[in-house]
Amino acid sequence: MFLLAQKSAFSSLFEIQDWVSSLAYLADIFDKLSDQNLLMQGSWTAQLSLNLKMGPFSKKLEFWLNKVLRNCVSVFPTLDKLVDDSETDNLNTICDFIQEQLTKLRDDLCHISHRLWPNIELKIGFKIHLLEMQPHPHS
């Protein structure tokens, strides 16, 4: 590895199983967040369509969280390969870390969605419910 060849102090981090597992998870989750970011970009993207795109992502978050609660990391391919390739004894620790991170991400997403789109409610069950709309006074 490059860090070993350069005799970097950081190379010793790759010997710490929890650190490498966390790094693998972070690579996977940032890949998923990047994909979602690209999906939401575009000059013709309306606020309603942005919120509608967040609904499926929220469902994915809930799905990932449910998998991790069962100590299953198959939805995170880099981490899953690391777990498969090594005799890991830190799966519970890494799943606890991921659960904490995904729960915070889910809660932050709900909070931000509510602030950005106050007339559209993103429920904890991750179903989008349009709030009752008042009829236009001139109709």
Structural class: mainly alpha
Percent strand: under 5%
**What would the principal axes of the Cα set say about the shape?**
globular
Strand order of the largest sheet: 1-2
Given the structure, what is the number of helices?
5
Task: Please write the string of helix (H) and strand (E) elements.
Answer: HHHHHEE
Unreliable sequence segments: 122-139
Would you count the extended β strands for me? 2
**What level of helicity do the residues show?**
55-70%
Structure description:
With 139 residues, this protein is mainly alpha-helical. It has a domain at 58-128. It is built from 5 helices and 2 strands. It has helices spanning 2-5, 17-40, 47-69, 77-85, 91-116, and strands spanning 120-122, 128-130. It has a two-stranded antiparallel ribbon. Strand 1 (120-122) and strand 2 form a beta hairpin. Helix 2 (17-40) packs antiparallel against helix 4 (77-85), helix 2 runs parallel beside helix 5 (91-116) and helix 3 packs antiparallel against helix 5 (91-116). The longest helix has 26 residues, at 91-116. The model is unreliable at 122-139 (pLDDT under 50).
